[in-house]
Amino acid sequence: STRLEDLRVKLENEGLVNISYVVVNHQGTYSQRKFHLLKESVSDYITVYQQDEQQADVWTTLNGNKDDFLIYDRCGRLVYHLGLPYSFLSFQYVEDSIKIAYCENKCGNCSYMEPDIDGICENITKNAGEKLAEIEPKPTGQHSHHHNLHRHRHHH
Fold first, then answer.
1. What are the DSSP calls for the chain, one per residue?
2. 2-21: per-residue pLDDT in tens?
3. pLDDT tens, residue by residue, 98-154
4. What residues does 36 pair with on adjacent strands?
5. Contacts by residues 119-126 (CB-CB < 8 Å, ≥ 24 positions apart)
6. Is residue 136 assigned to a domain?
7. Whole-structure pTM value
8. Range(s) of the domain holding residue 117
9. Are the CB atoms for 125 and 104 separated by under 8 Å?
10. Residues 99/137, Cβ–Cβ less than 8 Å
11. Is residue 126 included in any domain, yes or no?
Protein backbone atom coordinates (compact mmCIF):
# COMPACT_ATOMS: atom_id res chain seq x y z
CA SER A 1 0.00 0.00 0.00
CA THR A 2 2.96 2.37 0.37
CA ARG A 3 3.66 1.55 -3.25
CA LEU A 4 0.17 2.73 -4.11
CA GLU A 5 0.97 6.02 -2.42
CA ASP A 6 4.18 6.29 -4.47
CA LEU A 7 2.19 5.67 -7.62
CA ARG A 8 -0.40 8.27 -6.66
CA VAL A 9 2.31 10.89 -6.15
CA LYS A 10 4.10 9.95 -9.36
CA LEU A 11 0.92 10.30 -11.43
CA GLU A 12 0.03 13.56 -9.75
CA ASN A 13 3.46 14.93 -10.60
CA GLU A 14 2.86 13.93 -14.20
CA GLY A 15 -0.36 15.94 -14.15
CA LEU A 16 -2.89 13.17 -13.60
CA VAL A 17 -4.98 14.70 -10.85
CA ASN A 18 -8.41 13.96 -9.36
CA ILE A 19 -7.99 10.21 -9.42
CA SER A 20 -9.76 8.41 -6.58
CA TYR A 21 -7.96 5.51 -4.99
CA VAL A 22 -9.89 3.08 -2.83
CA VAL A 23 -8.45 0.14 -0.94
CA VAL A 24 -11.06 -2.46 -0.01
CA ASN A 25 -10.12 -4.41 3.08
CA HIS A 26 -11.12 -8.05 3.35
CA GLN A 27 -14.12 -8.78 5.60
CA GLY A 28 -12.49 -11.49 7.69
CA THR A 29 -11.82 -10.89 11.37
CA TYR A 30 -8.06 -11.10 10.86
CA SER A 31 -8.12 -8.39 8.20
CA GLN A 32 -10.42 -6.27 10.31
CA ARG A 33 -7.92 -6.35 13.16
CA LYS A 34 -5.24 -5.20 10.73
CA PHE A 35 -7.45 -2.40 9.43
CA HIS A 36 -5.81 0.40 11.42
CA LEU A 37 -2.36 -0.68 10.19
CA LEU A 38 -3.60 -0.58 6.62
CA LYS A 39 -5.17 2.81 7.22
CA GLU A 40 -1.93 4.18 8.71
CA SER A 41 0.19 2.94 5.83
CA VAL A 42 -1.60 5.07 3.24
CA SER A 43 -2.16 8.81 3.14
CA ASP A 44 -5.48 10.57 3.53
CA TYR A 45 -5.67 10.73 -0.23
CA ILE A 46 -6.35 7.01 -0.37
CA THR A 47 -9.64 5.77 1.01
CA VAL A 48 -9.57 2.52 2.94
CA TYR A 49 -12.95 0.87 2.95
CA GLN A 50 -13.72 -1.73 5.58
CA GLN A 51 -16.30 -4.29 4.57
CA ASP A 52 -18.87 -5.34 7.08
CA GLU A 53 -18.95 -9.08 7.75
CA GLN A 54 -22.72 -9.03 7.27
CA GLN A 55 -22.68 -7.62 3.76
CA ALA A 56 -22.07 -9.40 0.47
CA ASP A 57 -18.34 -9.49 -0.20
CA VAL A 58 -17.31 -6.72 -2.58
CA TRP A 59 -14.89 -9.00 -4.41
CA THR A 60 -17.58 -11.61 -5.05
CA THR A 61 -19.89 -8.90 -6.36
CA LEU A 62 -17.15 -7.60 -8.67
CA ASN A 63 -16.16 -11.08 -9.81
CA GLY A 64 -12.65 -10.63 -8.58
CA ASN A 65 -10.08 -11.38 -5.92
CA LYS A 66 -8.75 -9.27 -3.10
CA ASP A 67 -5.49 -8.39 -4.85
CA ASP A 68 -7.17 -7.19 -8.02
CA PHE A 69 -7.17 -3.66 -9.34
CA LEU A 70 -10.34 -2.36 -10.95
CA ILE A 71 -9.85 0.82 -12.89
CA TYR A 72 -12.86 2.92 -13.79
CA ASP A 73 -13.14 5.94 -16.05
CA ARG A 74 -14.65 9.29 -15.09
CA CYS A 75 -18.13 8.04 -15.88
CA GLY A 76 -17.74 5.08 -13.55
CA ARG A 77 -17.31 2.51 -16.31
CA LEU A 78 -14.91 -0.37 -15.76
CA VAL A 79 -12.00 0.03 -18.16
CA TYR A 80 -9.55 -2.49 -16.74
CA HIS A 81 -9.77 -5.35 -14.28
CA LEU A 82 -6.27 -6.48 -13.45
CA GLY A 83 -5.66 -9.71 -11.59
CA LEU A 84 -2.37 -11.20 -10.45
CA PRO A 85 0.34 -11.01 -11.64
CA TYR A 86 -0.71 -7.87 -13.51
CA SER A 87 -1.81 -6.18 -10.31
CA PHE A 88 1.65 -6.22 -8.72
CA LEU A 89 2.67 -2.58 -8.41
CA SER A 90 6.28 -3.49 -9.14
CA PHE A 91 5.10 -3.91 -12.74
CA GLN A 92 3.84 -1.12 -14.97
CA TYR A 93 0.43 -2.56 -15.74
CA VAL A 94 -1.56 -0.72 -13.10
CA GLU A 95 0.11 2.59 -13.87
CA ASP A 96 -0.39 2.16 -17.60
CA SER A 97 -4.01 1.12 -17.16
CA ILE A 98 -4.72 4.20 -15.07
CA LYS A 99 -3.10 6.38 -17.73
CA ILE A 100 -5.16 4.84 -20.51
CA ALA A 101 -8.38 5.10 -18.49
CA TYR A 102 -7.51 8.72 -17.69
CA CYS A 103 -6.58 9.75 -21.20
CA GLU A 104 -8.52 7.65 -23.67
CA ASN A 105 -12.23 7.21 -24.17
CA LYS A 106 -12.07 3.44 -24.11
CA CYS A 107 -15.76 3.12 -23.30
CA GLY A 108 -16.97 6.04 -25.41
CA ASN A 109 -17.16 9.72 -24.61
CA CYS A 110 -17.64 10.81 -21.05
CA SER A 111 -19.27 14.08 -20.11
CA TYR A 112 -16.83 14.49 -17.23
CA MET A 113 -13.75 14.93 -19.39
CA GLU A 114 -11.14 17.37 -18.16
CA PRO A 115 -10.88 20.22 -20.65
CA ASP A 116 -7.09 20.63 -20.52
CA ILE A 117 -6.11 17.01 -20.67
CA ASP A 118 -4.56 16.90 -24.14
CA GLY A 119 -1.15 18.25 -23.24
CA ILE A 120 -0.73 15.83 -20.35
CA CYS A 121 -1.94 12.87 -22.32
CA GLU A 122 -0.01 13.42 -25.52
CA ASN A 123 3.00 11.25 -24.68
CA ILE A 124 1.45 9.20 -21.94
CA THR A 125 -0.92 6.97 -23.87
CA LYS A 126 1.48 6.11 -26.66
CA ASN A 127 3.90 4.39 -24.28
CA ALA A 128 1.26 2.94 -21.97
CA GLY A 129 -0.75 1.50 -24.86
CA GLU A 130 2.22 -0.35 -26.28
CA LYS A 131 2.99 -2.03 -22.95
CA LEU A 132 -0.63 -3.01 -22.31
CA ALA A 133 -1.07 -4.38 -25.81
CA GLU A 134 1.18 -7.28 -24.86
CA ILE A 135 -1.38 -8.65 -22.40
CA GLU A 136 -4.62 -7.22 -23.68
CA PRO A 137 -6.78 -9.75 -25.47
CA LYS A 138 -8.03 -8.45 -28.79
CA PRO A 139 -11.73 -7.56 -28.61
CA THR A 140 -13.87 -10.26 -30.21
CA GLY A 141 -16.82 -8.02 -30.96
CA GLN A 142 -19.00 -5.37 -29.41
CA HIS A 143 -19.63 -7.08 -26.09
CA SER A 144 -16.04 -6.83 -24.92
CA HIS A 145 -15.67 -3.08 -24.95
CA HIS A 146 -14.24 -3.11 -21.50
CA HIS A 147 -10.93 -4.78 -21.75
CA ASN A 148 -10.82 -7.39 -19.11
CA LEU A 149 -7.37 -8.72 -18.36
CA HIS A 150 -8.88 -11.01 -15.80
CA ARG A 151 -9.36 -14.68 -16.42
CA HIS A 152 -12.49 -15.40 -14.49
CA ARG A 153 -12.33 -18.35 -12.19
CA HIS A 154 -15.76 -19.89 -11.93
CA HIS A 155 -16.77 -20.83 -8.44
CA HIS A 156 -18.90 -23.95 -8.32
1. -HHHHHHHHHHHHTT--S--EEEEE--SHHHHHTHHHHHHHS-TTEEEEEPPTTSPPHHHHTT--TT-EEEE-TTS-EEEEE-TTTT-TTSSHHHHHHHHHHHS-TTS--TT--TT-HHHHHHHHHHHHHHHHTTPPPP-SGGG-SEE---PPPP-
2. 788 899 999 999 989 889 99
3. 999 998 888 888 877 666 777 788 777 777 777 777 776 554 444 434 444 544 444
4. none
5. 119/15, 120/14, 120/15, 120/16, 124/14, 124/16, 124/99, 125/99, 125/100
6. no
7. 0.73
8. 4-130
9. yes
10. no
11. yes
In a domain, 98, yes or no: yes
Work out how many domains the chain is built from and give that number. Answer: 1
**pLDDT, tens only, 58-88:** 878 888 887 899 999 999 999 999 998 989 9
